[in-house]
Amino acid sequence: MSRIVFVSSTQPPSELTLLSYEMTTVESAADALQEAADVYVIDGRTDLAGARAACQTLSRAEAPVLLLVALAGLAVLSPDWGFSDFVAANSEPAEFDARLRVLLRTNADPDVLVAGPIRVDGAAYSATLDGAPLDLTYTEFELLRYLMQHPGRVLSRETLVSQVWGYDYYGGTRTVDVHVRRLRAKLGQFDHYVGTVRNVGYRFANAREAHRAG
């Protein structure tokens, strides 16, 4: 089930809660960055200035941003706010659902992943670090891509072996440690993007951490 993070000091409107999505409400964009989200919905019904700031903050995250705005506020909206789409507050549930589905479909399995200075292009099978080509082996590339696809989540060695090396791989999980060590060496001063969770596995920096580190 897709997860929606609603950014507001009040509860989400019934038109949104009636839909079949997992819903979490947080009070600020900073809090939203700590949550795993498929779409952020920002409440701009009463505080457009705050909504604009939240949009600009969350535009740096990987998930798209849907801005909820009152009809009176439509005239002042601008693309430089950073939202992916907007919806009027008095819209029917079907309209909310249609907007969310488009954003979810557009954001599904993106070819390009960006975290601070690290950029991975799955279609071109290339990676760059601060704009310079990153020379990775096939496995290092797949490992980095999988980690970046799950920012902020702790991934066990067993999970990484099955997802990167494949279920038919019969080597030990320590090969993950070896490849992570090599990957970190190539990331140089940005090696902290790949964190170690002791006795469990590894974790790629979430959007908020990536922004601070960048």
From TrEMBL:
Q: Name one GO molecular function term.
A: transcription cis-regulatory region binding
**Coiled-coil portions:** none
Any one Gene Ontology cellular component term annotated for this protein:
cytosol
Q: Does the keyword Phosphoprotein apply?
A: yes
GO BP field: regulation of DNA-templated transcription
Q: Which UniProt keywords apply?
A: Activator, DNA-binding, Phosphoprotein, Transcription, Transcription regulation, Two-component regulatory system
rRNA-binding keyword on record? no
Protein name per Swiss-Prot or TrEMBL:
Uncharacterized protein
Taxonomic lineage per UniProt? Bacteria, Bacillati, Actinomycetota, Actinomycetes, Propionibacteriales
